[in-house]
């Protein structure tokens, strides 16, 4: 079969067939009287084998080895191809993500595109200072795409950079909430904590709803950040977690402040005082926990808290008794 017929039937161009011939990859077994290449059925089968292996990403040199070396084994080569393909997919995915983010920024011109690219690159820098400047430079005129901010906020370990990212997300309004929400279900507790702290900076009813969901988290540190934020928003659902935080000395000062703020609502004051007093029973909490609970009663108005403090001023635990007596003096001086 002449080269033109082979090209037509195989879909491989005549130029490529000549290239295969020059490399010794597929050499026609015959020649016509006029000197033209004459391909046999076996030659054509080899052409299809070559094309099949090329479709897997093998180079022509690797194809030749695969077809001609008797001892050639595909396992290692296939493993290398898998690794290379994954790296290529990762690079292409990163490029697609970057393009999506640039498109979401709705650039008016190439100057805007270049500015967005620079911000995205800075946000991925190894330098914490550079990442922080990128987050703080996000403005309405030149915003960092919210998708990039969320991704960075959920992975950032430097506290200063994390704070800047939360600030930038808060400035973007509720646009990031839908992207932050899946972070609440992450397997890694640190990611869930970052999601909660980012959501807590957004003053939105939808954010409050997400924070309420976070109160069910298995880790106290995660639900603790949600509870403190909800306490500042006047949400009574946070009370049990806030009391737990006081007992466990988990950000207990902020928890006590949040309980005091909630207790300004007369309808909640006795409920909060009762929640604290119930945990004061000797044997259910250690001495230091009982002392912290007593201190937390200081900012809770109402007779329930006052009666509990009066009783605690005679507690068998001297540290608790002294704390209660001191708190009572402060309350009387107000």
TrEMBL record:
PROSITE patterns: HTH_MERR_1, HTH_MERR_2. It comes from the Bacteria. Residues 1-69 form the HTH merR-type domain. Keywords: DNA-binding. InterPro entries: ARM-like, ARM-type_fold, DNA-bd_dom_put_sf, MerR-type_HTH_dom, MerR_fam, PBS_lyase_HEAT. Coiled coil: none annotated. The keyword Cell inner membrane does not apply. PANTHER family: HTH MERR-TYPE DOMAIN-CONTAINING PROTEIN, REDOX-CYCLING DRUG-SENSING TRANSCRIPTIONAL ACTIVATOR SOXR. This is MerR family transcriptional regulator. It comes from Streptomyces thinghirensis.
